[in-house]
Design a protein that fits this description.
171 residues, mainly beta, 3-stranded antiparallel sheet, 10 strands, 3% helix
C-alpha cells in the first residue's frame, strides 16, 4: 500500500505488488525490500514531500508513509517553501486547505472512508482519517488519507490526474 496523508499533508506507505502486506506493525521494516514507486503528482500546485523520521511513528502506514504538503514560495528571493500564512492556527491559513487531491495512478477505488470531524491545526482528532484506497492492476495499492469532500465511490475506475477529493484535516 501507499498511504498518502492529505491533511494539510498526505502520507504514502507501501504494500507488496501482490496486494499482501509487506510487514506487520510488530515487524521491523528493515526486513523488507521496498521498491521505488512512481506516481502522478497528487496536487496541481507546488508541493513538498518528506518521510517521517525513523522511530517517530508507531503504525505501519505511518512508518511506510510519506507526507505531501501543498506549499508556496511567498518570497522568490528566498526560495524555501512555506506551508501556511499568518500563524497557521486555522485550517484556512494552510496553503493546502481544500486544494484538489488528484489520482496518482490508474486503478480502481477499493475503499472510501469518511471521518466527519475536522481537526484544528496541530491537534489530533479521532482516527481513522478519511481516506480513499486505489488498487492498480499489478496489485499496488495507494491510500490517500486526511481528505475531505470525496468525489469518488468504491468501484470507480480512476486515471492519473482525476479529481478525487480535497485536502482536509481529520483523523
Amino acid at each position: 500500500y501507499v498511504v498518502v496523508h492529505a491533511a494539510l499533508a498526505l502520507i504514502i506507505g507501501v504494500h507488496g505488488t501482490s496486494g499482501q502486506q509487506v510487514a506487520t506493525d510488530n515487524q521491523s521494516l528493515n526486513e523488507y525490500e521496498i521498491s521505488a514507486l512512481v506516481i502522478h503528482p497528487i496536487f496541481e500546485r507546488l508541493f513538498v514531500s518528506f518521510e517521517h523520521p525513523k522511530g517517530s511513528e508507531n503504525t505501519l502506514g505511518a512508518r511506510l508513509g510519506r507526507d505531501f504538503m501543498v506549499a508556496s514560495l511567498r518570497n522568490p528571493e528566498k526560495p524555501f517553501p512555506i506551508a501556511y500564512k499568518n500563524e497557521g492556527k486555522r485550517n484556512e491559513d494552510w496553503i493546502g486547505w481544500r486544494q484538489k487531491v488528484l489520482s496518482p495512478m490508474q486503478g480502481k477505488v477499493t475503499d472510501v472512508y469518511k471521518n466527519k470531524e475536522t481537526n484544528k491545526p496541530g491537534e489530533f482528532g479521532d482516527p481513522p482519517a478519511s481516506s480513499i484506497t486505489i488498487k492498480r492492476k499489478d496489485g499496488v495499492h495507494v491510500v490517500l488519507a486526511h481528505v475531505r469532500e470525496i468525489k469518488v465511490r468504491e468501484g470507480d475506475d480512476v486515471k492519473p490526474g482525476d479529481f478525487l477529493a480535497r485536502v482536509g484535516n481529520n483523523g
